[in-house]
Design a protein that fits this description.
By secondary structure, this protein is of the alpha+beta class. The protein contains 16 helices and nine strands. β1 and β2 form a beta hairpin.
Length: 416
């Protein structure tokens, strides 16, 4: 997708390409991006044409076609309202103490730390507890089962083991809640209600698929976003120091307590808009994918997309277009201050996707990411390792943008 974007002539609004022998349409014009993702969403409500009923864990909210997706999305959306996020906040905050302690223990052995691994421990525990009510214990036990599972998902190593875990271990917990009438007001309770009501007639395999995608999407995108943010802050110590000072000042106004109100104070004052710049530089999905459900005339072009044609939107290419973002390889959080954002097309940023099939859990993901970063930036200074590469190398074996071999930084405890 990057190659297609880089080589289009600048005048084309859509580019034809092939994936093996299959023709696809690559949308490079932002007005057409808006048409596909929002304005004419009814024609692009499905993500892909691939279907394999034997691939149990692919039958989830991210993959399923539009007719099945819509009622499922409507039922899940209330899980991620601001009120529910505030309700989950104390649970996530409780992991911050162990998170900081893990960094302290690690730098006693070496000041070179794989921050991506450390962040994964934090996000696995937060997701597992908030969504499933399961104590994952990754921060306290490096051999915890959920952590082992998480390491296999994106490498696709021994994936049958992952499938068995979500079908058997997680679903057994689900069934136990049904039998014992346990209510925790979490994601699992929503699935239980859906199953009982018969609205969507979810099988246990389909339930396993939903549990799988929310765990997978949640822990990895949050941990990588934290890691990429730290990677850039390590390269730009002035920005890191200013951010830390801002955090400490706001914390002082809240009696040095990491409350929900303190988090909102930082958010409203744009102290953490570095996350949006991080997602510009490192979008979890480098491209967005849709399928044209009918023959479709692209607005203001002479191009007709035939029914069942796959449509790709190169988010990574758009985010690195120098005509949209000057010096796109530079980390500049100020790009996302309101006056700067007003100068750009609304679809110039696609870090969470866009339209009705955008990231359903974006508020929750932001909350986890912000909490984790605040917890460790208050206590530690992050620096680049002399001689290390200045640009991130990505895995070739993942659909989402994950580091190839971790993210290693020098970590020092701040003097109090």
């Amino acid at each position: 997708m990057q190659e297609v974007y880089d080589n289009h002539n600048g005048k084309s609004k859509v580019v034809g390409a092939y994936i093996y022998t299959k023709p696809v349409a690559v949308i490079v014009d932002l007005d057409l991006v808006k048409a596909v993702l929002i304005k004419d969403f009814h024609n692009f409500s499905s993500r892909m044409t691939y279907k394999n009923e034997k691939d149990i864990l692919s039958q989830h909210l991210f993959n399923i076609e539009g007719k099945l997706w819509r009622p499922l999305r409507m039922k899940f959306s209330p899980t991620f309202t601001s009120r529910k996020i505030k309700f989950m906040f104390p649970t996530v905050r409780n992991f911050c103490e162990d998170f900081v302690r893990n960094f302290e223990n690690s730098i006693e052995k070496s000041d070179i730390v794989n921050v991506h691994y450390m962040n994964s421990l934090f996000t696995v525990d937060a997701i597992g507890t908030c969504f499933f009510g399961i104590e994952c214990n990754s921060l306290r036990n490096p051999d915890a089962e959920f952590l082992k599972i998480s390491s296999r998902i994106f490498t696709r190593k021994n994936f049958n083991f992952v499938e068995d875990f979500f079908r058997d271990v997680v679903c057994e917990g689900f069934k136990a809640r049904e039998r014992k009438h346990i209510i925790r007001n979490d994601f699992v309770d929503i699935l239980i209600d859906l199953k009982k009501s018969g609205e969507l007639n979810l099988s246990y395999d389909q339930i396993a698929a939903q549990l799988f995608i929310f765990f997978t999407a949640g822990f990895e995108t949050s941990s990588t976003s934290m890691s990429y943010a730290l990677f850039e802050l390590a390269k730009y110590p002035t920005i890191q120091n200013k951010l830390r000072q801002d955090i400490l000042e706001i914390m002082e106004r809240h009696n040095n307590q990491l409350t929900y109100e303190a988090l909102m104070d930082m958010t409203h004052n744009k102290k953490l808009n570095l996350l949006t710049e991080t997602l510009r530089m490192y979008p979890p999905l480098p491209f967005l994918q849709r399928v044209s459900l009918n023959d479709y005339q692209l607005p203001n072009t002479n191009v007709k997309i035939e029914k069942n044609t796959e449509v790709f939107i190169p988010a990574y290419g758009i985010h690195y277009d120098p005509e949209i973002y000057a010096e796109p390889k530079e980390f500049r959080p100020e790009r996302f201050l309101p006056p700067e954002m007003a100068k750009r097309h609304p679809q110039a940023f696609l870090g969470f996707g866009d339209g009705p099939r955008n990231c359903i859990a974006l508020r929750f993901g932001r909350m986890i990411t912000k909490l984790g970063l605040i917890a460790i930036l208050r206590k530690f200074k992050f620096s680049t390792i002399p001689g290390a590469a200045r640009e991130m190398e990505f895995s070739n074996h993942s659909m989402v943008l994950v580091p190839k071999d971790g993210v290693y930084l020098k970590v020092e405890k701040m003097k109090t």
